[in-house]
Design brief:
Blueprint lengths: L1 E5 L4 H12 L7 E6 L4 E2 L16 E4 L9 H9 L3 E4 L4 H11 L7 E4 L3 H21 L11 E10 L7 H10 L4 E5 L2 E5 L3 E2 L3 E3 L2 E3 L2 E2 L4 H9 L3 E8 L3 H8 L2 H5 L1 H18 L7 E9 L4 E8 L2 H16 L8 E4 L6 H10 L6 E4 L1
Parallel strand pairs: 1-2, 1-4, 2-3, 4-5, 5-6, 6-17, 7-14
Antiparallel strand pairs: 7-15, 8-9, 10-13, 11-12, 13-14, 15-16, 16-18
Length: 356
Amino acid sequence: MRVIVVGGRGHLGARAVAALRRLPGGDSREIIVAGRRGPLRIDLAEPSTFDALAAGDLVIDVADSTGVAPDALARYCLDHGITFLEASSDAVVVDRLTESLRGASGEGAVILGAGIFTGLSNLLASRAVRDVANAEAPAASATNAAPVTELVLGISTSPFSAAGGSTVRLMGALLGVPARSWAFGRRVLSAPIGPGQKLPFPCGKRPSLRAALAEPDMLHESLGVPDISVFLALRPGLLCAVFLALPNFLVRSAFFAFVTRFSFTVLRRVLLARTITRVEMVALARGADGVTKKRTLVAEDGMRAGGVAIAAIAAVLVTKTLHGLGLRMIDQVVDLDEVMEKIRLLGAPGEIVLGE
């Protein structure tokens, strides 16, 4: 079994590769790092390099999808019988891949969502929806979301911690992208930054923002819940008030995006290069008869946990028959329990903790 990690030398990619190499069964699994400078040369901007992927069974993309589009790579894998796992959290990238590959045929499979968010965030939300479905209709299947009318997902993190260049670029790029949500089965676009709900995270209730996150559209694609909202709770909480106080025209401006990228490049890649951040999530699903289910997740070191999550998701995917599956969201092919079992096999059960 050959797993190729595109971008495996990057800030998140290196953590994913390290976790993959800790998985049991390493003697029968080859982990290959690919990128523009090798050791296996794959350049997302040069499709002529993609033929080097022919020997791979699973390709994981953790490269800078905001800077260089992964679309051609995803299409190559779909056409050539390779399973492709995209780890991007860029809502624009995820939207474009979904629209271009929905219903597309091919011998491979394209799976969207890996890492913490997207990835574990989708799986946590899907679990809350399934909890409601099972409570209202115990015989319902795991993917039957019909009884669920509303889904709210909150993600709490701090921008004041170490991050790679792709994360910093994503932060700047999304300031000019409309936030997404779903209401009454229809997609709603709003200002890039808007007021959110006060949500019950494991650490307590926190204010949040509505932002341009990828999960609302992904979860509607996979679950079909009519009302979906995803909020970002920044730490310290004062940041939420600061962003909401900024004029919308300023937030959308190229100047503000540049200042954000520059300042966070200095902070996250230099001054705070050794600082870790705690990530918390809460998923709330509500059924037609008022039944509400809550699921939570805590990762003490968000970036390290992201690498662990990618490795665990990949370990589940290689056990499944996915040939010819086409495009799928991660929660359509992988269950949260399966991923948590692989995390335990990685010897990291305390790094990612679930709760209710």
